[in-house]
Design a protein that fits this description.
40% strand; mainly beta; 78 residues; globular
Amino acid sequence: MNATAGFFEADRTYQRRRWIFQCLAVAPSPFDQEVRAVGFLYRPGEPATATALDAEDWELDEWKPTPATPAMSPEGPR
């Protein structure tokens, strides 16, 4: 599935202030067909939570793509 330009992309990491979102997939919701980005949301040093973000989250929350580093990865350094 191709997301619209300017939306989360699968296999990318994004940051908004202290929050980090690792996008695993982009797909339509089975309930309303709204496109959602599914992944893990966390702050460094805290547990990650599985979540889905929508177009409003993208537009209003100022997410910026960022390179994934071992310190940002929930699995820790490799």
